[in-house]
Amino acid sequence: MIRVEHVTVEVEERKILDDVSFEVRKGETKVILGPSGAGKSSLLKIILGLWKPNSGSVSVHGVEITHLSEREKMPIRRRMSMVFQGNALFDSLTVAENVAFFLQEHSEMAEEEIRKRIEDCLEFVNLSETQDLLPEELSGGMKKRVAIARAISFNPEIILYDEPTTGLDPLNAKIITGLIIRLKKERAVTSVVVTHILRDAFAVGDSLALMSEGRVVFDGSAEGLLASTDPFVEDFLSEIREEADLLTHQTGRG
Ligand SMILES: Nc1ncnc2c1ncn2[C@@H]1O[C@H](COP(=O)(O)OP(=O)(O)OP(=O)(O)O)[C@@H](O)[C@H]1O
Ligand SMILES: [Mg+2]
What we know:
Blueprint: E1 2-11, E2 14-24, E3 29-33, H1 40-48, E4 55-60, E5 63-64, H2 70-77, E6 80-83, H3 95-106, H4 111-124, H5 140-151, E7 158-162, H6 170-187, E8 190-194, H7 198-204, E9 207-212, E10 215-220, H8 222-227, H9 231-239, H10 241-251
Parallel strand pairs: 3-8, 3-9, 6-7, 7-8
Antiparallel strand pairs: 1-2, 1-4, 4-5, 9-10
Helix pairs in contact: 3-4, 3-5, 4-5
The structure holds adenosine-5'-triphosphate (ATP) and magnesium ion.
Adenosine-5'-triphosphate (ATP) binds next to helix 1.
């Protein structure tokens, strides 16, 4: 579904992504872990086709996108959605208008059809009652759910999530990871989830990649991550040792 091969991105002679390769199979949820500045968001931008790599290739749905024009990328982008870290909701639009926005701009759907789709999307995230509220009237967890409702408005096959649970309390984080899991199970969505929260990574990830300084230093199972003797992996885990120990203990992993 997504294949990144030997991708390097340089900005002002600094490698933001350095020979990154990884792939996401159909229906899989791939987690990207790593400390701040590791290049996680940059990798999402590469997959979305917002950035062009200096070298390497990126294929989505089997189509190599690196050499496509903006126009040529459109049909591929349409099958993919992104949930941004800051949600990227429009402050002056209501919840319903936010969810409808891309459908109104980029689809041929009739108003009535759009209205029905908004209802479905908001029902999926359990926010049916909030259609006429403004984003500022919602809690952080609710805003994130609106962002997810908007992300699924086009029935995407791929969803990219950038830090979907950062800043949320554990209960709201669990609601969000629950939605990510349901989208996989009920709608066969293929996902990439960027996070630095190990608990959420383990909750949603079928496989995990760990990034450090623009490189993928580990790619494999949760068990493999906890058991790894790679110095980068050990460093990362030692910084969040308490959380890692707790998870090892709870799951019998490691
Ligand atoms: N548009 C840009 N121009 C120049 N440098 C950039 C740009 N975007 C990101 N960078 C740099 O690339 C590196 C990786 O950034 P990126 O946002 O991908 O990290 P991240 O892993 O998502 O971090 P965080 O957890 O803080 O979100 C950082 O050093 C950042 O300063
Ligand atoms: Mg980021």
